[in-house]
Design the sequence.
C-alpha cells in the first residue's frame, strides 16, 4: 500500500483528553477516529490490525472446535426479562422502543440469545457438547468511557458460549478455551497472564482473566514468586495465607478510656501495640438500599476490605460505604464501634437491620483491641467466640504485594499492572434454566446443559498491546497484528534514481509476499521517520541516495536502537530475515 | 465438518408465516433463526455462506482500490441533524437516549459518518480520490419486515463511499464499482442485471440497481428486447417512447352528458373511442399533508401513474392518494374532473392549493375526451395548450411490458421479476456540503468532494440466490457461496465396512481441499437424502454397501436429475470434476 493513497492522516497532536499511550498513538497514527464519547470509527490502518487479530482468533476458535455464528445487535428486551437481567445488568441496558411499540435493547453480551438458540436446536445428549462463537459489535453504555479503546461503549468482541452435558464436560470445554486463548495471545505476540478472577455480573462459578502486562494498566494482578507454584489472580480475587498470630492465653476483656482516638493507627500507637493486634469496623450498605440496612464489617487492623469479596459474601449485592447518617441511625459509634456487644447496640430493632461480617483473620487472632461501642472507649482482649460471634465469617481481605501465596508453596505475591484482554467463565445452568434450554440425557431424563462463556475484546486487545509496547515516539507493534510488516521510505524524492529504486524494491517486496506500507510521499526525511516511528510497524526500510551509492538499503527494527545496512540486491531476503529476527 | 457435530437442526416444517422459498428453506435448513420480527441469528451453515459472500465482496472491493474501514452502529443523532436527514429518513431512525442524555441513533446507513471521517482527513486534491468501504451491521426499523432475509430490520451490508475531485472522477469511481459489482455477482454464481433505478431517499443524481432475476422476486424490471441496445431499468425508473397519436385537426371543445359514467373505461365504451383518446384525472396529496393541498395529475387514459416519477416531479415529497374528503373540499368532482377549466374550480383559494401535473403523453395527443368538472358531464376535443395548461409537464407514466424501448432502437420492453441485491448511487456534493468536508484544489480554491455510495445487502444476497435457485425439495446453492461444496452421506451405518469407507473418503476429500459436510448420523437414507436436497450443496456423494460391492460411490449434482457412479479409488478426482462440471 502506498501511504500517499492510504486514507488517514498522522497528527502531531493527540486529543487533549488522551491520557493513555494507546489513546494518543492510535488517534495520532490515524488508526481510529472518535465519533462520540466511547464510540470510534476504525480507519484503514486500524481496521487492518483489527482484522488480523480477528483472523487469529477465528483460526484458533475453529481449531478448538468452536463454530462461528452471528447474533443480532438489536434484540427484544423480553429475552433479558426471561434471564432476569433486564433491570440488573450493569451498565444499564441501552433501550429503545421500536415502531411496533416493543422494547428493544442493544445487546451488551449474548448469553440470552445463544441460550435461546440452543433451546431451539438442542434435543439429545448426542448434540452435546458444542461451542458457538461470533465476532460482533456490542454496546455497553458506560457512564465514563475513557482512555481511547480501553474503555469504550461500542466495541467488537469475540464471544463464545459452550454447552456441555455435565461438569466434567464443562471442565474440558473450559480448558480447551483457556488453551486457545494462550495460543491466540502468543500468536498475537503479546505477553498475557491467565489469572483467577471474580465472575462479576456475568455470574457463574469459576472465571479466569487474561491480563496483558503493562505498567500503565489499570488492573492489578498478583503472581506467586515461586514459578513452580503458578498461582496468579487479580486483585479482586486474590487470596493469601493470612498471618497467624502467635498463640497466647486469652486475657480478660476490659474497657479502657481512649479520649479522642478515632483511627486504628492512633489506637495502636496509643497502646503501643502493632495494628495487627486490633480489629477495625467498616460500615457498608447494599448499593440499592435507601437506608436502614447496615453491613458491619470486622477485619484485623493491618488488613483492608476487598469489596468484591464483600459483594460475594453479601450474595452478589454491590456494597457501598454507609453514610454518616445511616451509621448514626443504627446506633453505632463511629471510631469506637465493634462487633463485641453489637447485640446491645441501639436495641433489638437495630440489630436485626445489621449484618455482621467478620474476616477470618479476626477469628484466629487472640486478645484484640476493639471498639467498646461507647464514644472514647475501647476494649482489650477481645476474642472471637468467647466475646463475640458474627452472622458470616469469610475471607474479605485485600491481598497485597509480599503477602504469602495461598498455594502449597513458600512463595509470596508479586504485584503487576496490566490490562484485561480476555475473560472466561464457568456459567453453570443459570441461563439454561432461565431460558428453558434442555436436553434428554442417555437415561431419558431431561437436563439443563452446563454453560461456559469466553470473551475477548478485539479493539481493547489492540489498545492493550500499544500500552505494553510503545516508547516516547510511538507504537511498537508485534508483527502478527501490525497493519503492515514493513514501512518502506523512499527518501530524496527529487532524485529519479532513488524514486525508481524505491518503487522497484516496493514491487519486489510485495511480490515476495511481504506486507509493505510504502511512504512514497514528497515529504522530508524527518517527517517520514517520525511517521514510521509513530505507526510502529516492525521494520523500517529506507532507500536513499546515500545508501544507493553503496548499493545498500537501511533497515531498522522498531524495537531496536540501531539500524543496519544490507545490499539492495539481497534486499528481499535481508528484510525477511530482519522481520524474523 | 461432521453433520453430527454441526450445530443446528433441519426442520420438516417451515414457520407458518414463511411465504417465500428463501424464508422457508433458510429456516428449515438451519441457516438462520428468527429472534424478533425482521431480526435473525445466523447459525453455522448460514454464517459460512455469508462469510463466503463477504470474502468475495472484500476481495473485489480491494481489487477495485477501495479501502476497508469500520464505522459505529450507534452514533449521535447530531450527525444526522447536520445532514438534514434526522427527521426525514425512511424508515424513521431508531433513536435512544444514552446515560449522558444524548440522543443516539442506530445507523441505517453511513453517509454521515463517512463524510465526517473524510472531513477530518481530507486536505488537498492530492488526497483524492478515495473509496472507503465496510461490511457491517445496520438497522432499519421497517414497519413490515417479512419474507425472511429479504426484508429485515437488522442486516449485514457492504457499503462503500467514494470521494472524487470532480464529476469526471466520480464517473471513473462509479464505473469501477459497477465493474466490481459485476465481478462479485459473477463469482457468486448468480445471474444479476444492472438496471437504471431511482435514487430514493439516499438522494443524488444517477443510480443503478443490481437485480437478481427470480420469478418470485418482488421487483419488476424492464429490459430492451434488442440485445445491442442494452437498456434496462426497474419499474420505478423505466421510461418508454410514448405512443404518438395520429395528427388530426383540432375539433371544437364541446360538453356532453355522460350520466352515471365514472371510469375511463366506461367513458371510452360509451363514446366508442379508444381509452388513448381520453385523459384521466388522479388526485394525490403530499404524504405529510394534513389536508388542503391537492396534486391534480392528468394522464392519458391508456397509461398509469408511476408514483416514483410523480414524487420526483413533486421535488421529492412522497405522494399519497387524496381522500374523498380532500377531493371534495377542493371543489373537484370525482369522475368528471379535468384540468380543463381547473382555474374556475372552487374559486381562487382552491386553485392556489392545487398543483396541476400533466404527463407529457397528454401534451402530444389531440382532441382528448376529458371531464367537464361538472357531475355527469364530459368534454370532447380537449387540446393541451389551447384549452388548458399545467404547472408541471413531465413524464410520470408507468412503463409496461411491450412498450417501445426509450433507447435509440426498435426494441420493446420485456418484463422480468427479480430481487434487488445491490444499489450504486452518484450522490454529488450534498453530504460534503452539509458535513463541511472540503479540499484545496490545485488552483488553491476550496471545493467539496463529489461522492458516490455503493451498497450490497449480504444476507439479502443469500436469500435472493435461494429465490432464484431452488426446487420443491430445497435450495440449489452455487458452489462459491454454499457453506460446503459436498454433502457426503454414509449410508448403512450399521455396516462397519461402509462406515470405515465413508470416514476414509471424508478424510481424503478434506485433505484434498474439498469442503465437505459429512452426514455421519445414524439416520435412514431417506432422511439423509432429504436433508441433502434441503441444504442444497452443489454435489451429493453417497457411500453405500451396494456401491461398495462394485467399488463405487454415487455422485449427484444438486442441479442435475441423474446420479452417476464413479470408482471409489478415483473418488477425489471424480468429485472435483463433478464440482467443476
Sequence:
Amino acid at each position: 500500500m502506498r501511504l500517499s493513497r492510504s486514507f488517514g492522516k498522522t497528527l502531531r497532536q493527540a486529543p487533549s483528553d488522551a491520557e493513555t499511550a494507546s489513546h494518543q498513538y492510535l488517534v495520532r497514527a490515524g488508526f481510529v477516529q472518535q465519533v462520540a464519547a466511547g464510540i470510534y470509527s476504525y480507519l484503514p490502518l486500524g481496521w487492518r490490525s483489527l482484522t488480523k487479530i480477528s483472523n487469529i482468533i477465528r483460526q484458533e476458535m475453529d481449531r478448538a472446535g468452536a463454530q462461528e455464528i452471528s447474533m443480532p445487535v438489536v434484540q427484544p428486551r423480553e429475552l433479558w426479562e426471561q434471564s432476569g437481567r433486564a433491570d440488573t445488568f450493569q451498565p444499564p441496558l441501552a433501550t429503545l422502543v421500536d415502531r411496533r411499540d416493543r422494547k428493544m435493547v442493544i445487546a451488551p453480551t449474548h448469553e440470552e440469545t445463544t441460550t435461546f438458540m440452543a433451546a431451539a436446536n438442542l434435543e439429545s445428549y448426542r448434540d452435546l457438547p458444542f461451542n458457538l462463537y461470533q465476532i460482533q459489535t456490542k454496546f455497553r453504555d458506560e457512564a465514563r468511557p475513557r482512555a481511547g479503546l480501553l474503555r469504550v461503549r461500542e466495541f467488537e468482541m469475540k464471544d463464545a458460549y459452550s454447552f456441555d452435558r455435565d461438569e466434567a464436560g464443562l471442565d474440558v470445554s473450559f480448558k480447551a478455551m483457556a488453551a486457545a486463548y494462550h495460543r491466540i495471545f502468543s500468536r498475537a505476540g503479546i505477553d498475557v497472564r491467565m489469572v483467577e478472577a471474580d465472575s462479576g455480573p456475568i455470574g457463574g462459578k469459576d472465571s479466569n482473566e487474561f491480563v496483558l502486562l503493562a505498567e500503565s494498566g489499570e488492573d492489578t494482578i498478583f503472581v506467586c514468586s515461586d514459578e513452580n507454584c503458578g498461582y496468579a489472580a487479580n486483585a479482586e480475587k486474590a487470596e493469601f495465607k493470612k498471618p497467624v498470630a502467635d498463640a497466647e492465653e486469652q486475657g480478660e476483656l476490659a474497657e479502657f478510656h481512649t479520649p479522642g482516638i478515632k483511627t486504628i493507627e492512633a489506637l495502636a500507637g496509643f497502646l503501643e501495640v502493632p495494628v495487627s493486634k486490633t480489629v477495625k469496623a467498616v460500615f457498608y450498605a447494599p448499593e440499592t438500599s435507601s437506608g436502614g440496612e447496615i453491613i458491619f464489617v470486622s477485619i484485623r487492623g493491618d488488613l483492608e476490605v476487598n469489596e468484591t469479596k464483600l459483594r460475594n459474601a453479601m450474595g452478589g449485592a454491590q456494597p457501598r460505604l454507609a453514610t454518616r447518617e445511616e451509621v448514626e441511625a443504627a446506633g453505632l459509634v463511629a471510631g469506637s464501634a465493634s462487633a463485641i456487644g453489637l447485640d446491645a447496640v441501639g436495641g433489638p430493632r437495630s440489630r436485626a437491620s445489621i449484618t455482621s461480617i467478620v474476616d477470618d483473620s479476626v477469628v484466629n487472632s487472640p486478645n484484640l483491641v476493639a471498639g467498646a461501642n461507647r464514644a472514647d472507649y475501647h476494649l482489650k482482649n477481645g476474642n472471637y467466640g468467647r466475646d463475640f460471634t458474627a452472622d458470616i465469617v469469610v475471607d474479605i481481605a485485600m491481598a497485597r504485594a509480599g503477602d504469602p501465596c495461598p498455594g502449597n508453596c513458600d512463595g509470596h505475591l508479586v504485584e503487576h499492572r496490566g490490562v484485561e484482554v480476555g475473560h472466561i467463565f464457568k456459567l453453570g445452568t443459570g441461563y439454561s434454566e432461565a431460558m428453558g434450554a434442555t436436553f434428554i440425557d442417555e437415561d431419558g431424563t431431561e437436563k439443563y446443559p452446563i454453560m461456559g462463556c469466553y470473551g475477548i475484546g478485539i479493539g481493547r486487545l489492540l489498545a492493550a498491546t500499544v500500552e505494553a509496547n510503545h516508547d516516547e515516539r510511538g507504537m511498537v507493534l508485534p508483527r502478527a497484528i501490525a497493519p503492515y510488516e514493513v514501512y518502506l521510505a523512499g527518501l530524496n524524492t527529487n532524485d529519479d534514481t532513488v524514486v525508481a529504486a524505491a518503487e522497484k524494491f516496493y514491487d519486489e517486496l510485495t511480490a515476495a509476499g511481504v506486507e509493505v506500507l510504502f511512504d512514497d510521499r514528497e515529504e522530508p526525511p524527518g517527517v517520514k521517520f517520525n511517521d514510521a516511528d509513530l505507526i510502529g510497524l516492525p521494520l523500517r526500510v529506507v532507500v536513499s541516495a546515500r545508501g544507493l551509492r553503496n548499493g545498500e538499503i537501511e533497515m531498522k527494527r522498531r524495537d531496536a536502537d540501531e539500524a543496519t545496512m544490507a545490499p539492495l540486491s539481497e534486499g528481499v531476503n535481508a528484510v525477511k530475515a530482519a522481520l524474523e529476527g
Summary: Residues 167-188 of chain A form the longest helix (22 residues). Chain A touches chain B through 61 residues (CB under 8 Å).
